[in-house]
Amino acid sequence: MKIFKSILFLAVLASIFYLITLEWKKRNTPLPTELHPIVAENRDILIQKASEKGINIVITDDFRSAAEQDRLYEQGRSREGTIVTHVEGGESYHNYGLAIDFALKLDDDSVVWDLERDDNQNGQSDWMEVIEIAKKLGFKSGADFQGSFKDYPHLEMDFGLSIRELRYGERPPKQ
Ligand SMILES: [Zn+2]
């Protein structure tokens, strides 16, 4: 009985120590302030490869601070507008510099979110072609998100890290 109590005591102590370590790491790991270099590199390759197929894209969003994310979250909720995100600050891969959003740029320089158009006339939607190239580069597409909110412009590289892990200070390698 005495041994059992000692073991229990040590287990509780170890758990507390573990939680303190987690919290310490969370507090002492600064949030990123820009796009991760590997994501930035692949963004450039994506633009290049799409253009080789006759598709011009623009990156409409990349790194977003947690404050900017919170503001975006308010859109369509406490502020006017349509809902563009389902996550608050710290909950998006954009907040860790690991996501980009794209749109199509037409010859007249207008920017469109059109999943159907096939301007390079190869029988495939240009939008889906871009997603395909992006996936080959290692991006995950918001078009594949489970549930009702499909985020078609969104591309992210998670490096195997969940948002929870990122919140707790885990970071992908810089190269
Ligand atoms: Zn996005």
From TrEMBL:
Domain Peptidase M15C residue range list: 90-157
Annotated GO MF terms: hydrolase activity
Coiled coil: none
Entry-linked Pfam families: Peptidase_M15_4 (PF13539)
Keyword Hydrolase: yes
Keyword vocabulary terms for this entry: Hydrolase
Organism of derivation: Fictibacillus halophilus
Protein name: Peptidoglycan L-alanyl-D-glutamate endopeptidase CwlK
Enzyme Commission (EC) number: 3.4.-.-
